Amino acid sequence: MLRSIGVTATEVRLPAHLDGLDGLIIPGGESTTLSRLMSLYGLREPVADLAARGKAVWGTCAGMIMLASEITEQDPVPLALMDVGVRRNAFGRQVDSFEQDLTVKGLGAAAYHAIFIRAPVIIRVGAAVDVLAALPDGRPVAVQQDNLLATSFHPELTADARIHRYFVALAGGPPFNAAAPQIDTPRVR
Ligand code: GLN
Fold first, then answer.
1. pTM of whole model > 0.70?
2. Residue 42's CB: how many other CB atoms inside 10 A?
3. Atom of ligand 1 nearest to the CA of 61
4. CATH number, residue 139
């Protein structure tokens, strides 16, 4: 998705891979696995340091769980970078995954089609946290705290690149433009 919008992207597996980055996306997947591997490979401190230096960090789904200051379970151990509380698997099991059109603050008037896959939800929002989008029942699913961004859903699975462009702007790239073209070939239709 980043490459489709002209951004140079690289995979981060080891602390040295963080050198020189303008931003970091902690992806979806399984937060307990992310947590264990981040401890094993010594990524916790360097990622916290990157965020403290004002670099843009975005957590999607499991990545959002990792950014939270607290979660409702013992495992995983989050990075505690963002002042939010998060509940994992808040909508149930895999079969309860769903799609929902959202209005996202700052992205323009068009609805954002969000894909939730065994998604977490935000259950507490700190004073410094801006809610960018919420479900129809009011539960927040996209939040920002300065240089930190978190989404419950998977923005890389649609053709809508607005959140990626928003993040790239946060990382010091071109200013966000809601009218910029969409991606031609989304990974999932
Ligand atoms: N359920 C996963 C977890 O708790 C997150 C799922 C996802 O990232 N799509 O880590």
1. yes
2. 11
3. 8
4. 3.40.50.880
